[in-house]
Amino acid sequence: MNILLIIYAIFALFPLLWMVMISFKADTEVFTTTFIFNPTLSNYKEVLLRSDYVRYITDSLIVSGGAVLVSVIVGVPAAYALARYNFPRKEELAFQILSFKFAPEILVVLPLFMLYQKMGLYDSYIGLIWVYQLISLPLLIWVVRGYFEDISVEIEYAAQVDGYPWYQIFFKMLIPLIKPGLVSSALLAFIFSWNSFTFPLILASSKVYPVTVAITKYLGTDTARYGNLAVAATVSALPAIVFALFIQKHLVRGLSFGAVKG
Amino acid sequence: MQKDNLGIKKADLNKVPFKVRVRPYLIVAPSLIITIGIMVPFVMAIWYSFTNYSFQFPTHRFVGLDNWVNMLTSREFWNALTVSLLYGLFSTAIEILLGLGIALLLNSLNNWLSKVLRVLLVFPLMVAPVTATIVWQLMLNSSVGIVEKLFNIFGVYNFPWASAPGTALMTVVMIDVWINTSFVILLVLAGLQSLPKSPFESAKIDGGSAWFNFKNLTLPMLKPSLYIALLFRLMAALQEYAVIFALTKGGPGDTLMSLSLTSYQKGFKFQKFGSAISFILVLWLIINVMAKFIVKRQRFAQRQASGLEE
């Protein structure tokens, strides 16, 4: 049984190891498929210091970070309302929000391309942050809603009886209680935004240039520079992997989307 | 009778002041307004599928069902539909089966290896599909690829991964499986962790075989999670764009021209916007119907599973 796991682990992890290895290989050694070589930082210097790659990373950070920030500000109250209040058509509304995640990206993006050009949002941070809400907001609302549902209503009653105003109950009591869910879903939303490709490919071109689109440039024009390509790939995957290690504990719970307990 | 946090019974709802009744809607409104931005272009899109709109010539006129008739009578459309469906079905089926198997293994083997792998196996999901595809390209490359060298040992040379019509679909499906099996593993692990302990304890006393326990206990209770995995994977795989785009841009020939890629190409390369929209609306329709069906099954399985719990 262990052996089956190991075989799958090799399939899942070897490509990442290989990517990192190539990123440290000099151009002369890239073509040898050996595991023993003289590691060099020349590819990293080339990509990070002598190209615009740092700018692309910054763009990705601004767009993904901005998207998650907006999602948290509007999504957490929405998740609370969907968890606590009983109101007509609540379940339909909750499903409607989730369904935005299933809309084909190309369908959204083709007409949005025209709309953005008319509104002056094409190739802008705000334009991308807005469309990224389709990735981050439904995810955040669904995960956080599950956490709110886990909190007993009784403690809210108790605080109400003690005369605390609603905003103190919400910010001082509820937010700390849902923190693990909020942090993990926000990081997940960040990762999925960071990895998004179709939206920036079509809705941005030069002023805003997230890494996922930038990396295809390395592929097209620079096919012989595998070392540089591997650096670009490694650096772009790094933030997500670091975050994944942070949220590991909550990830399994977060990804259940409240589905498991119904 | 259900109560909300204000302690109001559902039947008394009409006596509640209007101000209180609209409160939840007001709280949810900002999220809806932000995401509703998608509905505006969506309605526009339906309209444009009946016009000859092109980005080059901003004036357009109504052409009736022309785009739709042309699409349904073209070989291009049926090819794109087939590619999308094959890609969606193959990758989803493999990911669910493989993910279920690995998650069950991780859950049953409670040793150090399974604990370490629970952390590490998430990594592929964290790599952008575009990046993942590029890494695989490096590995499959016929001159510098490690996989090529591995195949050489077994006497296979220049295996045509993405460059031959016969193997291209298999290659993109393999990359999709590499990226997304982690997602299924995570979902199934979440499901396994929420299973009640008592039915398994009594099954242990009854001494049922492992297969019997899996079929009659684990699987029915795991169904809700599996349906969620199916929903998310199938929906995403049907509209997959990044992997195919980064690997072959739809080639060789039109082997990998899925509905998404065909639509993108029509819209931007050939400037036939109205026609591009009709292709992608078909995809939207398929996804919508499948999502509704799977959600219905999921809720049914959920109710059954909770019945089992009691």
TrEMBL record, chain A:
SUPFAM superfamilies: MetI-like. It is a multi-pass membrane protein. Signal peptide: none annotated. It comes from the Bacteria. Residues 57-247 form the ABC transmembrane type-1 domain. Its main location: membrane. The chain crosses the membrane at residues 56-81, 93-113, 125-144, 226-247. The keyword Transmembrane helix applies. InterPro entries: BP-dep_ABC_trans_perm (IPR050901), MetI-like (IPR000515), MetI-like_sf (IPR035906). It is found in: Cell membrane. Keywords: Cell membrane, Membrane, Transmembrane, Transmembrane helix, Transport. Belongs to the binding-protein-dependent transport system permease family. This is Carbohydrate ABC transporter permease. It comes from Sphaerochaeta associata.
TrEMBL record, chain B:
Signal peptide: none annotated. PANTHER family: GLUCOSE IMPORT SYSTEM PERMEASE PROTEIN GLCT, TREHALOSE TRANSPORT SYSTEM PERMEASE PROTEIN SUGA. Residues 81-291 form the ABC transmembrane type-1 domain. InterPro entries: MetI-like, MetI-like_sf, Sugar_ABC_transporter. Pfam families: BPD_transp_1 (PF00528). This is Sugar ABC transporter permease. Belongs to the binding-protein-dependent transport system permease family. The keyword DNA-binding does not apply. It comes from Sphaerochaeta associata.
